[in-house]
Write a structure and sequence with these properties.
By secondary structure, this protein is of the alpha/beta class. It is built from 26 helices and 24 strands. It folds into five domains: about 110 residues, Rossmann fold; about 90 residues, Rossmann fold; about 90 residues, PAS domain (Beta-Lactamase, 2-Layer Sandwich); about 170 residues, Rossmann fold (3-Layer(aba) Sandwich), CATH 3.40.50.300; about 120 residues, Helicase, Ruva Protein, domain 3 (Orthogonal Bundle). The strands form seven sheets. It has a five-stranded antiparallel beta sheet with strand order 10-9-13-12-11. It has a five-stranded parallel beta sheet with strand order 15-18-21-14-22. It has a four-stranded parallel beta sheet with strand order 2-1-3-4, with helices on both faces. The radius of gyration is 48 Å and the shape is elongated.
Length: about 625
């Protein structure tokens, strides 16, 4: 079996026994699996029809038989063309019988090659013949051979009985190796083309089926029209929405009162969310997207949905999104500390949780404003509804606006096709936390004021009003009253959010809470640490510009770098001020640290040295110094 051949995909219909033998011989040499059938030109069409039904695509034949087969629709016929050598070899065989020889030229190609061979075949007669004219014609024409004195005729299988019936000797045409190989190569080439064509056709069919499946799967009507406004394709949803729709129907018959839509399709214009009314389907939201080919309008794709279905879907999506985890995790017990300031802040916040008024949380960065916001939410009547937070300083103004209020399809470049609900919608019946509200742009401030006043939002690119019921908790680390005086914050918005105010103390104002926080944070990191008094004094004496958030980071740093869970003064300094810029570069000679290490190591000096990160020699020397100093 040859690499490029396929069983029963090409066949040889041979008009002569010599050609049959030659094809079989060469096909066997080349290892190709091919059907070879010897048949007269009268029988050839029936043979080909049968083979075609069995999957044969390419046929090889010669002379008039090939000419007849080429008239059959749906097949490819390769002609095994005569060569100089097969003509000459046939002539030599005929000369063994007589020198009065005639070649029966049954095709133009055969006659052409014979004309070229004549100088090498003296005395030969080229006798043109068209066998497809019928037996009567054949007998009449061949009768002329007697008058010409011809004693030997050369031709194919189908003419042999006619010639021999007149007593004229007959020689079958020869077959040349090159002729046969060329025909086989051409057949294999045509097969490869056919396979590629079938592959592409299959891919196109799959692509078409996939596209049609996609179209039928979407929950909106899709209609394709050409540049003349004629409907060419549509999906199942379109049939349900518009039962009268048909292919090759003018779009104007579907929308007789919407000439602008038809014009847009024909002129390549975009239409976004146009509201049209259909007597059967009701109000529809329709969009037109032009199709261009080589910068020319090639029609358009129309998408549409019932307005009521869009509204119902929006409600369903909103409910699903609200149940997706927009929840508060912190409660008042999560806020650690026993100082008077933090206790007072928690007491006031609990009172605020009992009412539904807007709250403004004021405090430095890292004091835990969101923890207070979540705790207020979880202690309020809205605890079972969403808690949605957004940082007004973390996004550009244009993006923040879309996040706050949402948008509809086509509202701006890059907008999701399905649109997106804003956080006011997501927080419906719950709480929205606006962190760093001082960073909101004037445009955002104006829209926030309107939402707070009216409890209604309008998505970007839409004119539909959506009612929302939310409690607003805002937070800032700046002096909003001063920003109002400087014209950097709207006064009307300030007075809207400044209903209930809670000032959250900084860590430097409640230093007595640091030991409680350190212990809790260390346990969070899975560490059981012990701090020396000197190390704790280092932490209490620090200014803590990053507040509780900074303390959390420092505790994690100390827990990772300490040995054996003991935090020394040196470790605390390095955790606060950095390994390269610590306030003291001296080695720790803290008596308390060495005593704690020995206690933790059950008196094992080598283990205590390892816990403090010292060599045994250094540990022993410092121990001797301490014992000598305090003896």
């Amino acid at each position: 079996m040859g690499e490029n051949s396929r069983h029963a995909e090409f066949a040889v219909i041979s008009p002569s026994s010599t050609l049959t033998l030659k094809f079989r011989e060469i096909l066997e040499k080349r290892g190709l699996d091919c059907i070879v059938i010897q048949a007269s030109q009268m029988d050839a069409p029936e043979v080909v029809s049968r083979l075609k039904d069995n999957g044969v695509k390419i046929f090889i034949s010669r002379g008039n038989t090939a000419k007849i087969l080429k008239k059959i629709v749906g097949i490819t016929v390769i002609e095994a063309r005569h060569t100089f050598f097969d003509c000459y070899y046939s002539y030599k065989n005929a000369r063994k019988i007589s020198d009065r020889i005639a070649f029966l030229a049954t095709s133009i190609g055969y006659k052409d090659i014979l004309d070229k061979c004549c100088p090498f075949m003296p005395g030969v007669v080229i006798f043109p013949l068209e066998p497809e004219n019928g037996e009567a014609y054949i007998k009449t024409e061949l009768g002329k051979l007697h008058d010409m004195g011809i004693e030997v005729a050369i031709g194919g299988l189908s003419l042999k009985p006619f010639v021999e019936a007149m007593g004229i000797r007959y020689v079958m045409t020869e077959a040349d190796d090159d002729e046969v190989n060329d025909a086989i190569d051409e057949a294999l080439y045509q097969l490869s083309i056919e396979h590629e064509r079938e592959k592409r056709s299959e891919e196109l069919e799959k692509r078409y089926v996939t596209i049609q499946t996609i179209m039928d799967s979407v929950s909106e009507c899709i209609i394709r029209v050409d540049e003349h406004g004629i409907i060419t394709d549509f999906n199942d949803y379109a049939v349900n929405l518009l039962p009268r729709i048909r292919k090759n129907l003018e779009l104007s018959t579907i929308f007789p009162n919407c000439s602008s839509i038809v014009t847009a399709c024909m002129e390549g214009k975009h239409v976004n969310d146009e509201v049209v009314e259909d007597k059967e389907a009701g109000y529809l939201i329709l969009s037109v997207n032009p199709v261009s080919l080589d910068y020319k309008t090639a029609g358009a794709v129309i998408t549409m949905q019932r307005q009521q279905e869009i509204q119902n879907r929006d409600e369903k999506i909103r409910k699903r999104l609200l149940a997706r985890g927009y929840s508060a995790v912190f409660t008042f017990p999560s806020i650690l500390g026993q100082s008077t300031l933090i206790s007072d802040a928690k007491r006031i916040a609990k009172r605020y949780a009992e009412v539904d008024s807007t709250v403004l949380l004021s405090g430095e960065t890292g004091t835990g404003k969101e923890m207070f916001a979540q705790s207020i939410h979880n202690a309020s009547s809205r605890r079972n509804s969403p808690f949605v937070a957004i940082n007004c300083a973390s996004l550009p103004s244009s993006i923040l606006e879309s996040e706050l209020f949402g948008y509809v399809k086509g509202a701006f470049t890059g907008a999701k096709d399905e649109g997106k609900p804003g956080i006011f919608e997501l927080a419906h019946n719950g709480t929205i936390f606006l962190d760093e509200i001082s960073e909101a742009s004037p445009d955002i401030q104006m829209r926030l004021l309107r939402v707070i006043q009216e409890r209604q939002v309008v998505r970007l690119g839409d004119d539909r009003v959506i009612n929302v019921d939310v409690r607003i908790i805002a937070a800032t680390n700046k002096n909003l009253k001063m920003l109002v005086q400087e014209g950097k914050f709207r006064a009307d918005l300030f007075y809207r959010i400044c209903v209930l105010v809670l000032v959250i103390p900084s860590l430097s104002e409640r230093r007595e809470d640091i030991p409680i926080l350190v212990d809790a944070f260390a346990k969070r990191f899975g560490q059981d640490i012990t701090m020396t008094d000197a190390a704790m004094d280092i932490l209490k004496g620090y200014s803590w510009p990053g507040n509780v958030r900074e303390l959390l980071n420092v505790v994690e740093r100390m827990a990772v770098t300490c040995e054996g869970g003991i935090i020394t003064e040196e470790i605390a300094e390095k955790a606060l001020y950095g390994f390269l810029h610590s306030r003291s570069n001296r080695p720790s000679s803290d008596k308390e640290a060495i005593q704690l290490a020995l206690k933790a190591a059950d008196g094992n000096k080598a283990e205590a040295a390892r816990m403090l990160g010292m060599s045994k020699t250094t540990f022993w020397r410092r121990l001797q110094e301490i014992e000598g100093k305090y003896s």
